Amino acid sequence: MPTQPNILLFIMDGMQGKLVQPGHPCRTPNFDRVAARGMRFDNAYTPSPTCSPARASLMTGLLPHNHGVLHVEHVVDDDQCVLRTDKPHWAQHLQKAGYDTGYFGKWHIERTDKLEQFGWETYQVLDRDVHRIHSQKGGPTELPLDSDLTRYQEGPEGYNPILHYGVTDVPALERSMGRTAKEAMKFIEAKESRDEPWCCCASYYEPNEAMIVSREAFEQYDVDRIKLPENLRDDFSDRPGFYRRQQQIFNEVSEQEWRQALACYYGRVTELDQQFGLLLDHLESSGQLDNTIIIITADHGKYVGSHGMDGHNYGPFEEIYNVPLIMSGPGIAAGEDTHARVGFHEIGPTLLDLVKADPLDVPDSKSFAPVLSDPSKASEFTTGYAESCGNRFILTQRILWDGPWKFAFNGFDFDELYNLEDDPHEMKNLADKAEHEDRVKRLTAMIWDRIRETGDQSLYYTHYYTMRIGAVGPNPR
Question: Which of 49, 148, 391, 460 has the fewest other C-beta atoms within 10 Å?
Answer without folding.
Answer: 148
